[in-house]
Amino acid sequence: MIVDVQQGTFAVSPPIHRGEEIVRRIAGLLARARAEGRPVVHVQHDGGPGDVLGKGSAGWPHHPLVAPRPGEIVVEKRHSSSFHDTDLHQRLTDAGIDRLVIAGMQTEMCVDSACRGAVALGYRVVLVADGHTTWDTPVIDVERIVAHHNRLLGQGFADVVAAADVTF
């Protein structure tokens, strides 16, 4: 499940931390999942009119390295959680999916919410430890945000696994 890897997150200043590196890593995971015939889910955030990720804006489309292919699940959302006010849970249930490998953007927001929401609905979750990123905040830098969420989510919410070690 690829969360909010959209062109707008690369177009702002400052750009998302190590964004190009992370998107290439996610693209590698995506290629492996596709090669193994695994279902792929793309989540796309609509920040509303005027937002860099607003539907129809230049930032709305998926990053080209991880763009959906025909037949892959695409879910549009307006909240941090991929499950809030979307049909994601139903689509996953219909497809017989009970385990999610999650990567994407923004660590402390939509990636965190995706992991927690999935666990609350009974999914087994793998968080790609080196497959999510965010921006520095005035309070904490991005490296600490990512490390903190890997540690926190690894304590009962997800198996936290490096991209090279992910199995599908």
TrEMBL record:
Q: Does the keyword Hydrolase apply?
A: yes
- Family annotation (SUPFAM superfamilies): Isochorismatase-like hydrolases
Alphabetic keyword roster: Hydrolase
Instruction: Please name the GO terms that the record assigns under molecular function.
Output: hydrolase activity
* Pfam families listed in its UniProt record: Isochorismatase
* Record domain Isochorismatase-like: where: 2-136
InterPro entries from the UniProt entry? Isochorismatase-like_dom, Isochorismatase-like_hydrls, Isochorismatase-like_sf
| Record-given protein name | Isochorismatase
Q: Which organism is it from?
A: Reyranella soli
